[in-house]
Amino acid sequence: MSAISFQEIIDSIESLSIEDQDYLFDLIRKRRIDNRREEIARNGEETLKALSSGKAKQGTAEEIKAYLLEDEEE
């Protein structure tokens, strides 16, 4: 399968009707939102696992900041 250049993609999109372009942009936006949601969920799962295994620190923002700055000084 040959690669399509970015300009070819733009040209193809511009050849679509305005309605189809709007539909495509909306579809891409929704997929990006879904992908971001999935990424956030995966990060949340990893954080919960780290907390339950004791690998993650808990505390207020100030406590975590102090902990991180402490590590930098060492």
TrEMBL record:
The protein's name is HigA protein (Antitoxin to HigB)
Instruction: State the species of origin.
Output: Crocosphaera watsonii WH 8501
